[in-house]
Structure formats: structure tokens, C-alpha cells
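Hi there,

I know you've been waiting on this one. I reran it after we fixed the sequence typo, so this is the corrected version. Both the input and the resulting structure follow.
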Amino acid sequence: MTDDSGAVPGGQASGRTQEACRPKPGTQTVDRSVAVLRSFERTARQTPTEIAHRLGLSVSTAHRIVHALHATGMLAQDPASERYFLGPTTAILGRLALERMGATLLQPELTALRDDTGESVSLGVRAGDEVAILLHLPSAHPLRYDQPPGDRNPLHACAMGKALLAYDDDPVAMDEPYRRYTPATLTTRRELETDLRRVRERGYSVNDEERLAGVRAVAAPVRDGGGRVFAAVALQGPAVRFGDDRLPGLAEAVLAAAERLTDLHRHLS
């Protein structure tokens, strides 16, 4: 959650980024380049030396990758600080990806959901064992939950992740035990599968303070023209506003929005 300053608590560990740098046969350069780009998800501006330390690379390797990415426009450089940041090519590709996935065309429905409920709304897709946030519309409340586009959350510990997992062909392929974030986190395959059965029965998922203490969320799957679940939409906010008395109404709003988003994406396909 954030206050008016917009600060987001509970940053994720950098272990996944470091793992992305581990060499794989024939893909080391690609893996490292992707890891360098992904390091900007959490830090807006960096020097090659800072990137090297963050990713466990040699400084010379980081310089070589950064200079190559800069030459293609994937990174840009501030001449005053000499720090690099995501460049115009990255921005163009990201925008095109959102448009071709239909995400930007779904934004009016997401805005309506946010305005009708007064709570923060997110649209996310699966990215490995995480949910990648494509769109986020923050609540107008001073006390709210914020997660900017590009943020990532663990599948097993967020409402969108469980909405996506419930309709996946191989929903629980992660290694046990799953990382524990709060006392409420589901850490075993058995616990998660039991919860996913409830998701399929009622059509929506609930995150009951499983990722961050004091934060609850409800989410529902969004389907493409072929009926495949490709995204999830969620309402998120402080537990004090997501009490058991209000949760059914929020779930109903999310389900209705997911149906409208599915219909809209079907017509766009």
C-alpha cells in the first residue's frame, strides 16, 4: 500500500534477476542482456558499474552489454550523470506489445471498474512463475495499494496469479516449498491446489494478506477470442476496506468486469 507519497512497501528480492544471469548453453549473451534490461524494472537510472554489482557481472561485461543496448536505442544515457535508463526503442516496443495484446483497448473498462468501486485495479499476465503487471489504475484513496506497470508478483501469493493458475493446463509446476511472504502465504502444492479448486468453483480468486500483511485482493480471469485465459483483472486494497462484508460485492464487480473485458477482446480479435 502507499500513502500520498506513493511509496510501495515490500520490494522483491533480486535473486530472480541474478538467476537470469546464470549461463545457459548458447544463450549467455541473450540472458545477460535481458537481465540488464530487467534490472531497470526496479532502478530507473544506473551506471554500468552499478549494474555489474547488482547482477554479479564483471564491470567490463556490463559495459559491453550496456553499450550495445545503447547503440540500438534500448537504453539511453543522461549526459550529466552518465547514468543509463530505458530508451526510446524499449518504449516503442512496449507500447506496441500492449496494443497488439489488446491491453490498451481494455483500459476504459478498467477505469470504469476503478471508478465504480473506488479501489485500485490491475491487469496482469503470466510471466514464468510471476505475474507481470500490464496496466494499473490507482485508487483515489490516500491509503491504497499501488503496483506500477512492469512490476511482478509471485503467482502463488497474489490474486491475479491464482486466477491465472486455476485455468492453466499445468497450473502448479513450481518447486516446493513456495516462498513465504506472510503467515497466510500458501507454501505447498496441496494448499495451492485446494485454493485453485475454490477459484474454479466460484470464478474468482482471493488474496487474503498472502503477499503483504494488511492487503487483500480479488481477481478474475480474462479470456481471448479462443476462450483461453490470457490475463487476469484484480481489485486490490487495504484489508480495512476489503472486509468480509464487502468482499462479495467486490468479487461480483470483478467478475462482471472480466466478462466485459473478455467480450471486448473477443470482438477485437
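Quick highlight: Residues 2-21 have pLDDT under 50 and may be disordered.

Best,
R. S.
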